[in-house]
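User: Last request for today: this protein with alpha-D-glucopyranose, please.
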Amino acid sequence: MTQEKLNELLKDMSLEEKVGQMIQLPAEVLTGGGLVTGPTGTTQLTDEQVGMAGSVLGIKGAEKIRELQKQQMAKQPHHIPLLFMLDVINGFETIFPIPLALGCTFSPEMAEKACSVAAAEAASEGLHVTFSPMLDLVRDARWGRVMESPGEDPYLNSEMARAMVRGYQGDLRSKEKLAACLKHFAGYGAPEGGRDYDNVELSERTLMEDYLPAYEAAVKEGCRLAMTSFNTLNRVPSSGNKWLLRKLLREKMGFDGVVISDYSAVEEMVFHGIAADAREAAKLAVGAGVDIDMVSNAYAGHLAELVRSGEVPEKLVDEAVLRILTLKNDLGLFEDPFRDVDPAEAEKTLLRADFRQQARETAAASFVLLKNDGILPLRKEPENEAEEGQDSSCSGKGTVPSAGSTAWIGPYVDNHEIYGAWSFPERPEKTVTIRQGVEAKGLPGMSFARGSYMMDKGCATKFGRIPNPSDEQADALLEEALRLAASSQRVVLCLGEHKDLTGEAGSRTSLGISEGQMELLRKVRQVNPNIVTVLFCGRPLAVKEIAALSRALLVVWMPGTEGGNAIADVLFGDRVPQGKLAMTFPRSLGQVPVYYNHFATGRPNPPHEIHLFRNGYMDEVTAPLYPFGYGLSYTEFTYSEVKLDRREMKAGDRITASVTVTNTGGVSGVETVQLYLRDSSASVARPIRSLKGFQKVSLAPGESREVSFAIEEPMLRFYDIDMNHVSEPGRFEVYIGGSSDAENSAEFVLA
Ligand code: GLC
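Assistant: Here's the final one, the structure of the complex with alpha-D-glucopyranose:
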């Protein structure tokens, strides 16, 4: 439909019809069920209002969507098609690693492909919009939703934002694409205490410098929707924040898409104490620029009357509705409301072999090897007991372990639910477990035992308490596991936090795994020191003891459909680990929030030392256990010194920084070479270093490669003392290495 026709349609619509386009229904109103992603039973709409609604969230299934589209359009005076929206966060039916794991690939290409697969599967069932990418910068692992974010760095998050929007959207008229929705605008990743939905206090400089870049990148990439965040930003709830939505998002950042509130966030302004009632909440939200009211009664109940009373100019409603109609038009819905969705085609699309292969490669690339004394990769062929690196006296009880035997132990061994909290596969049984992945390798000497429950008795999760495993059952599991461990050459312990301890409403006051699993680890260690720990998690955990008791520690996050295969690929060396941490692992909970791009302070402390009257703690160094950008390979890489082709930069100049990276180990590997810059003195304090570039290089044993980065003046800009986004003359340090604590450096001066 042309823009002119859209304008004519808008003119012809009644006020009730227009307001209807600004209402989003929860699935339960239309189907009695659907995916639950917020409080249920809260919608009080008339049948007429339900009939007028412009969109719905939480519905899957090609048949169902076709049926509902037909049913709802028939009720619309102008038969305007509905938008069907869903949280397609890390894949649709082929589940990919959680976004935090995707960040650890440092591969925008992989992120783009993952989102393209997700869009193809979701669109094949008739979905139009995904509530993704979530781009909230995160620094506090207590917050459950860190698993949804690409991580703690503005640059990495921006690169991921661009790639994910490209992956989802492409050409929106294509039947394999979805409109993307950046979220949660803004600053939702910094709630006080890591408590979900809590207040966020950010200076405007910190907001602009650290939290905004990824949202900006998504806007520049053409992201079609933006979702307001639940939190108050400096005591103003985002859904009623005119400065945030109109001044910053639309005017300064140039966003011209649809703004949708988060789930019932408009009406929640009453609870925030900002609106006296839903009527006032509706007035605030439409004034701030919220186009769609997700699952609240504010717009449905009050917006038409607010317009008729003259308190809200109809122009505001018209602008919002035109943006919604434009999105529907760009999706081609006026020409084909069903986007020629065919349930049989959809069936063939879901879990396609090439999609699974992509998921397997992406999962393997997202794993981060935090420790390895040489026990990995596991040998495939049986070996004699005295084999180098395997402590044959491991049984400690005179039991001679069988050659090349590996015991796979832990509550994750047979677990299909190795996907993130925002995954809704119809067929979870299609997820490859660790046992299935290992057995598919067809190797001798593999044995399996559960060893413990995943969670302790009565452990609280957001969906209620876990059923109490009986003591006897738990003891029996432990006994069987210890017998197996004592009679095997090595043990792979598959441990982690349950997916329901992460995600929305998944904030925790501890960063450990269950006591039952820790007991399993400690007792196995007593009978066999040859432990490889595979750790499932949706957030950085405090893993000091786990690392100390393991000869190798591989973080696999929540790897998704191909998790078991990817884990087997990496542990047996068919794929070399290449992941780098996108979020810092703390030494202890007390360090949180802890992140690499912090400030020197006036009393800087060497990160691994404790000094009186210096920045830090009395009882712990400030260095994390594993820093941002860190991750091991099965080989080693060395770096030459940093070379700069000039030491002084004038306006318009470009400095080329380069290093030669060499694979000095015995196997091929992939290294993520990272470029960090530090502005040594400026009109405001600057981070001790900031990521400004990264490149992945694949090197064969002995191979060297020169890696170069272009450094240009715009990369040096920041919000100065007057909040101007400028660079300032002075000295800059350049660091290039395989982690954020690289010491390899050089200096230049900006004239
Ligand atoms: C949830 C989340 C948001 C999600 C929305 C719809 O509460 O905050 O990320 O997209 O509701 O499910």
